Amino acid sequence: MMFVPTYDVEWRDYVIQAQETLQQSALSLSSGSARRTYADLLHISFANDEASFILLNDRLIELANLAENWDSYGAPGPAAETIADARQAIEKLRFSALLPELVAPSAEGGISIYFSRGSQKAFIEFLNEGDVLLARYGKDDEPNVRVLRNGLQDLDDQVLQEIRGHLGARA
Question: Is residue 2's pLDDT more than 50?
Answer without folding.
Answer: no
